Amino acid sequence: MSKPTVAVIGAGPGGIAMGIQLAAGGFDFTVFERGAGFGGTWRNNTYPGAACDVPSHFYSYSFALNPRWSRTYADQPEILAYLEQVAVERGLAEHLVADTRVTELRWSDQTHRWTVTTAAGVRQEFDVVVSAVGMLDVPTIPDFPGADRFRGRTFHTSQWDHATSTAGQRVASIGTGASAIQYVPAIAADTAHLTVFQRTPTWVGPRFEEVFTDEQLELFEREPDAALKLRDKAFQDYELADFDVESDITRYLTKISKGYLYAEIADPDLRTRLLPDHPVGCKRPLSSTGWFAALALPHVHVETSPIVEFTERGLRTADGAEHEVDTVIYGTGFAASDYLSTLEVTGRGGRRLHDDWADGAEAYLGTAVPGYPNLFTLYGPNTNGVTSIIYILEAQTEFVRRMLDDMVDRGAAAVEVGRSVTDAFNAEIQRAMADTVWMSNCNNYFRHASGKNVTQFPYRGTAFAERLAAVSPDDFLWTPPTH
Ligand code: NAP
């Protein structure tokens, strides 16, 4: 059999890693990207202060280490430049079809191929599709009554409006998640007034960051082992994590975070409003150096009365107050638990992926779904939360490459994961998660409306990689060619 042709949907960190595997294997492939170029979430999220809270020496590909990271937690422009450079150096530019939104994937039981349809109505057939759309691709903008009568401007963090600065403006910022704790400290000092609307308090721990000196950068360049030590340290820190509600680590982190809040916020009333009642990790763990200091500024106000509506001049809260502002920033997150929600996917026998996932997405090791042959999902269900996502993506893309090589060796037209192995895996991980912080007493985006945890992997990063590497071909159904 000739090598299968492959469509990769998305040119972020996953699509780039996949493209590199496919190029190395000599596959004919196309990377479709709705944006203008490589980078994915690191191209979209340009808000002030955007950075990655995974140490950069570990938030980078093992096959493209970067001795030149300027600091422990590189900011968005530096990460985007790194991703673009890796993609271009590995020859992916000629495979990229940018500014092209894929809307539909349809499997044919007759031809054993996928038809990929774009928003412009262009159709193209491929033997294999790899979704690399990620988990944080669809912004959530709450449907507040009266939003259309507001005369000021509004934007979501992933669509930051850089045309007009927030400096000197009265600003409302909705949400206190991973994005807000980065942009609020970056913009707060220069605003005329900033109201931070908090629905649920969340733990924010201290962040220890090193800006690398010229001497260090030269050392990393000269002696790669010196930089590898930093990578290894970050990797090991993640491997030690324990997400059990009752674990010593959870108790310790909760104590540390409470101590940090008390040390940073002197006002007892503000402390009380910022104090969560859940363990650390129930919501995504956060760390910051500037968050509490920004909230303590005299012209910054933390509002906990729920937003009930927009007015012409701002936002009204349940206590009746009207908050007049020029700009409203939605730091309200993403539809993280609605995997592949921008794609209409029809698999074997006409089944719809979103019907199959009506009670919450699930896959086998986050990567393959029964009923959907020759489809692989990078950063798919239950692959989040325990280590650098780059590490997970590398494991997944190596696995996909192995499956494609196997298809060629076996002369198979299609490969599909078995139902029983998938069901057993999902029953196992849901059991393993029952007593974790993710399932404890807070609202978080890990859980689908059905209550099922669809985002988190309950074991260590190495367990994920080892299990994928050890997957038996016997757990998959291999379809011979039709001719
Ligand atoms: P998020 O963590 O999901 O936080 C959304 C915030 O908006 C929460 O505080 C939420 O309140 C609030 N919210 C949502 N709907 C609301 C409503 N109707 N009214 C009032 N408040 C509302 O979103 P995010 O901060 O954009 O971060 C999303 C994810 O992006 C992160 O968890 C992370 O995975 C990724 N990220 C990563 C980094 C990094 O450094 N690696 C940085 C930024 C983002 P509740 O808590 O009450 O739901």
UniProtKB/TrEMBL annotation:
It holds the Pfam family Pyr_redox_3. Keywords: Oxidoreductase. The keyword Transmembrane helix does not apply. Gene3D superfamilies: FAD/NAD(P)-binding domain. The keyword NAD does not apply. This is NAD(P)/FAD-dependent oxidoreductase.
